[in-house]
Design goal:
Structural class: alpha/beta
Order of helices and strands: HHHHEEHEHEHEEEHEEHEHEEH
CATH architecture of the largest domain: 3-Layer(aba) Sandwich
Helix content: 40-55%
CATH class of the largest domain: Alpha Beta
Oligomer: single chain
Number of domains: 2
Radius of gyration: 24 Å
Strand content: 15-25%
Number of strands: 12
Length: about 300
Amino acid sequence: MVFASMKINQLQILDAIVQSGSLSAAAHKLHKTQPALTLAIKNLENQIGFELLDREHYRLQLTQKGKTFHRQALQLLDASTELNLLANELAQGNEPLFRICYEQICHMQSYNTIISNTFKSFMSTEFSLNSGKRFVSLEQVNTGQAELGIGPWFDLFHATGDLESIPIGKLDIGIVCASGLLPKSLSYNELQYYPCLAMFESDLSFDSDRLSYSKGAAIMKIDDLSSLKAFLLSGAGWAMMSLEHCNHEITAGLLQEVKITDREYQFSAQIRAFRKHAMHHGPVARQIWQQFKELSHEYMQQENIK
């Protein structure tokens, strides 16, 4: 039988070539030589009886049969990954590492409490928390760099990957600057004459037009929310900012909100916890997700009362 001799690493090589678009890039990614990859694909094509790659173009492309084969191969690779995760959990009792990408702008004590409680329940598991640029949590969950994401959520995010998500809070965003730096009310074009402070964007292929308020302004990019606020307070410029994180400074008169007269200038977004759909989740993932589901239930009840 053809499939009796087919190997998982051959399918992994095929997928790496498809994702990279070239043998050299795939070889670099897999830490193999180009001749080794060429031989592996040739052997696979000989086994299945048809060509997988169209080699007549500058960028390697799948043949029509190759597209169908690759689509099914991805399901097998996903199943293999899930099986390896299950075997690892069975061998060690629980996940050795649990990675969370937790966007700074969404920081809330209730989320910290859930993460802390889960950490204390699984002391043998190393917890890794990171943050940074805008929408980085979505990027890291989709690329497998994090098991759980906590970040702002828009409906179109579901189109970026096979995700399950639960609402756990709300984020109100407005334009903020040091008191007296800008008029309290001005037009969008007038705003562009003032420098803008902004978080780095992710490498995702989209960004929200509603948040693209700085197309003409001079921009300082910052990857840390505390630094962003510090530069706001120093009068370096204005920023689209979480109003919750500026509430104390606004009340104290150190920062002010700015109104735009000719377009929307305040936005609200849900905060969601999200992860990839999977056939199997380890005990750490199950416990932390259950706690966020309970928090989601409380949040939705409060929203329904309003």
